């Protein structure tokens, strides 16, 4: 029986690895599709290279992931991160790739609710460290922070299924992208524009949203479910007052 259990666990990890490879391929395809959009956004406030750099880097990352054979999630994530570091120019390589290399270790043992939350938190922490950016600086952090916080709360507090939690995280990221438009950029080349950066959507936040949207789509496909129709602000559990009203004591 112990041998059968080990084989089952190995099979499960292999399937998880395949799912992560599929997600990387989906992200690569989406970024290529959005290349011009990202270039246009970066043209207004940066070097106009974000679209091309990201498309090239993710295409290489998808190829590297496919070449792994039958990997586990940690190996896929680490390989993708190293590839992005070497292939994506500018600040995006270390931000997207380097942070991924560090957070990949959280997937040791496979994909679980706990490891997914730990992965997301570590990724955000490393992005903040490498970019020296915080909420309100008009960077990818403005999309990533609400996404990670929403995902963590949805899993650990609201006890939502992972797919629903991820859907809420995507909605939170979308709101974060919109938040970058009316604020002044304080990090990156956009910060050189001062108040002229106001009114422009951050390309790094936008590509972060695209990545999260593809992770959600692949997860829904793998689970044979529709993408949940949720939003980051909708209540999922009653607050204390509502709970009291609905309790037997409150109804008396």
Automatic annotation (TrEMBL):
GO terms for biological process: glycerol catabolic process. It comes from Halorubrum cibi. Residues 227-252 are annotated as: Disordered. PROSITE patterns: DHAL. InterPro entries: DhaK_L_YcgS, DhaL_dom, DhaL_dom_sf, Dihydroxyacetone_Kinase. Keywords: Kinase, Transferase. GO terms for molecular function: glycerone kinase activity. Residues 18-217 form the DhaL domain. It comes from the Archaea. GO terms for cellular component: cytosol. This is Dihydroxyacetone kinase DhaL subunit. Residues 239-252 have a biased composition (Acidic residues).
């Amino acid at each position: 029986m112990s041998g059968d259990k080990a084989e089952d666990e190995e099979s499960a990890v292999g399937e998880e690895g395949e799912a992560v490879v599929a997600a990387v391929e989906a992200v690569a395809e989406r970024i290529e599709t959005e290349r011009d959009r990202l270039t246009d956004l970066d043209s207004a406030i940066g070097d106009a290279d974000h679209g091309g750099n990201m498309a090239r880097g993710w295409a290489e990352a998808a190829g590297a992931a496919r070449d792994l054979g039958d990997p586990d999630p940690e190996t896929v994530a680490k390989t993708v991160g190293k590839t992005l570091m070497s292939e994506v120019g500018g600040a995006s390589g270390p931000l997207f790739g380097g942070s991924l290399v560090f957070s990949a270790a959280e997937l040791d043992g496979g994909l679980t609710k706990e490891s997914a939350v730990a992965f997301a938190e570590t990724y955000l922490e490393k992005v903040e460290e490498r970019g020296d950016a915080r909420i309100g600086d008009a960077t990818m952090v403005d999309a990533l922070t609400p996404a990670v916080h929403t995902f963590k709360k949805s899993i650990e507090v609201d006890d939502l299924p992972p797919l629903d939690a991820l859907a809420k995280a995507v909605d939170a990221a979308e709101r974060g992208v919109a938040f970058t438009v009316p604020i002044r950029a304080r990090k990156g080349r956009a910060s050189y524009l001062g108040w002229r950066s106001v009114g422009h959507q951050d390309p790094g936040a936008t590509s972060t949203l695209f990545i999260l949207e593809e992770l959600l789509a692949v997860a829904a496909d793998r689970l044979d479910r529709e993408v949940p129709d949720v939003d980051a602000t909708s209540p999922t559990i009653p607050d204390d007052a509502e709970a009291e009203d609905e309790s037997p004591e409150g109804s008396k």
